[in-house]
Amino acid sequence: MRTLSQSGRCHTTKRQGARPFRSLAGGGGVLLAASLLAGCASAPIAPTPDMTRAEVAIAQAQKAGAGDLANESLQAAQMKLGEAKESAAKGDARRSQNLVEESMADAQLADLTAQSRTAAKAATEVDRNITAIRSEADRRTPQ
C-alpha cells in the first residue's frame, strides 16, 4: 500500500496479511491480460486519408442532390465505406483499401449523375422558356 509520510514522500508499506504480487501468468493476471487485449482489438481505428477522401466525396454527392437523383450509387458508396471500416478494424488492409476505392468511385458517379440530371432539367426548362418566347413573339408579329 502506498502512503504519504509526514515529510511528503510517498513510500510503500506492507499491509497486514497482504499477499505478494503475482505475475501476469498466474491466476487473475491471465484474465486481466486477455481483457486488455480484447479492449485493444475492439478499439475504433483511425480513418485513413483515403477513407476521409471517400467521406468527403460522399458528402459532395449528397450536396449535389444524389440522395434524390442518384440514390443507388450514393447508397453503394456509403455501404462500401462502412464495409471498408469494418475490414480495417479486422486487420484486412487490402480488402479495406479496395472497398474505399470502390466507395470513392461510387460517390463520384453519384455526384456526376446528380449534376448531369440537374443540368438536364435546367436545359429542359430553358428550352421550354425559349419555345414560349418564340410563341409569344410569333403572335405579336403581324403576318
Structure description:
With 143 residues, this protein is mainly alpha-helical. The protein has a domain at 49-140: Up-down Bundle (Substrate Binding Domain Of Dnak, Chain:A, Domain 2), CATH 1.20.1270. 70% of the residues lie in helices and 4% in strands. The chain has 5 helices and 2 strands; from the N terminus they run ββααααα. The protein has helices at residues 28-41, 49-63, 66-69, 71-89, 93-140, and strands spanning 2-4, 10-12. Strands 1-2 form a two-stranded antiparallel sheet. A hairpin with a 5-residue loop joins strand 1 and strand 2. Helix 2 runs antiparallel to helix 4, helix 2 (49-63) runs parallel beside helix 5 (93-140) and helix 4 runs antiparallel to helix 5 (93-140). The N and C termini lie far apart (110 Å). Residues 1-5, 7-11, 20-26 and 30-37 have low confidence and may be disordered.
Q: Gist?
A:
Helices cover 70% and strands 4% of the residues. It is mainly alpha-helical and 143 residues long.
